RNA sequence: GACCCCGUCGUCUAGCCUGGUCCAGGACAAGAGCUUUUCAAGCUCUCGGCACGGGUUCAAAUCCCGUCGGGGUCACCA
């Protein structure tokens, strides 16, 4: 049975690169009907933090990457000790004393050729001469990464080690340990790295944001997963939008490419929009309501949920992120609407008092304040005035929303309501 | 620097293994247009690439070699 693992260290939050590595492991386990193991590499007691652990677990759950088993290296020190003793006994390792009478266990590296087989890259050869003797157990008693990694992978029966490219040079060191310990080698697969916008590792500057931050910015988990799927893997047949359930059916580690991919926010935004427009507005409301409260656009326990759902439907198709709704739909929640100066100059420069007043009168005269009656009334009016509809539509939109972009004008008027529409138009009507 | 990996439009990719169907297909971005109402949605179109040089071959994005370019690793961090 296939057994794979993802091994984050709780010294920071989960980032794009880690999430992708985890996703591919998870996918491979599901595709092969195997098991997905999570291993927490918390041997560095100083840098490991409970908050990070919680955040990583939380992000993984949010992405839908559930693990079948979980191990903590911090609880397995006795095991590493045991295997270190074994190597000491067989003469493969030796003890080095440092000042303070502290002891470290060091693995002797003998010159030889080390060939590793990689499922993605084929065979890679290394010369052991370029590898120094390896510390197994540090003088503080904790195991080193490479040693703990090998002991854990072997003793938890990991069949496929799928990890980032940056571990390629660790692999020969680990192979040496597998051999010395008498463990069978797993299959290796090294995923290409995800690069930042300016080349090189993803960093804060170049777009490395934690998964939790993407969540806060209003990205959907399925969209983020879908985007990650598109980096270094492709479902084929020119498809861009694919869900994790479907990917699970056709994913194979052999199909992953070798080339590093650059993270591109524009495309993530596009993918997110694809999901957003199909998402149930009720669910979007669940996400957006707390944000509206936080921004004091609505008060907790005192708002009309159906109204918010209706507004969401108006904007849904245009949103790149859920949070864009807050800025784009602000005029529905705020009375003192900020008018974009450019928009004002362009559409409200001329005096439209007469037209606005006429429209206000017409709105007052409507027995039924409905989408259809509003539009009909407006169209009749411009016809009577002998002007183009857009000559008035744009100024009215700016007066009502402060923006030149937004949903259709009649929807805006309908959901703003008769009174608020009149008030906002009145501001542009001169008293003389 | 040493060792290792990689190199198809600006970006993500299909094609490469099993050479001809590829004067290289799709997506994002950009530009243009359409949408009796905007665009940040939708539709249509345009721009743009096999890193370079040598082979092998009737034929190369696909195979081989070299160059150049990018990235990774060289810790008692993981």
Give an overview in words.
The chain is an alpha/beta fold. Helices cover about 45% and strands about 15% of the residues. It is built from 18 helices and twelve strands. The longest helix is centred in the first third of the chain and has 16 residues. It binds one RNA strand of 78 nucleotides through β5, β7, β8, α4 and β12.
Radius of gyration equals 30 Å
**How does the helix and strand content classify structurally?**
alpha/beta
How would you sum up the global shape? elongated
How confident overall, as mean pLDDT?
95
Q: Under the CATH scheme, which class of the domain at 1-70 and 192-278?
A: Alpha Beta
Tell me the distance between the termini. Answer: 85 Å
Unreliably modeled segments: none
The string of secondary-structure elements, in order, is EHEHEHEEEEEHEHEEHHHEHHHHHHHHHH
Number of strands: 12
CATH architecture descriptor of the domain at 1-70 and 192-278: 3-Layer(aba) Sandwich
In CATH, what is the homologous superfamily of the domain at 1-70 and 192-278? HUPs
The fraction of residues in strands falls at 5-15%
- Helix count equals 18
Main sheet specs: 3 strands, parallel
Question: Per CATH, what is the topology of the domain at 1-70 and 192-278?
Answer: Rossmann fold
Helix content percent band: 40-55%
